[in-house]
Amino acid sequence: MKRYIDYILKSVTIIETFLAAFLIFAVASSSISLARRLYYVITIHDFTQTYELFQGFMAHALLLVIGLELALMLLRHTPSSIVEVLIYAIARKLLIHGANAYELAVGVAALGGLFAIRKYLIVPVPIAETQETSAPVSAVSSSDHESQSSNLGHS
What we know:
Number of domains: 1
Low-confidence stretches: 133-155
């Protein structure tokens, strides 16, 4: 039974990695469209369309950022990465589709709550624990440590 569960876990991890790779590829290929939108924003001569073009540019750029954060979330599996995706999604909603004061107030409250969660409830995970393989750390003997600390005291 344990072998079966391990097989399923490894399969899910591989599928998540492929999904993250597809997301990164989609974001990279969609960056071409983002560059085109930037060109249109810069070269537009009709100032009545500038706002709509810039809003479209911002919507597209923030969507690409959300896609990248989603790929990181699939790879990392940390609470911090989930909160980051939510922060970017809510910020995009506020900046692009904020229609009335109620939606803006709820969005700002949600962002404040997410920032509070990130600051007070999420314990930072050391980088070595988030990566499956890490470089070995050489052990320092206590005599080496004592000689180094005594040398620091005499400098």
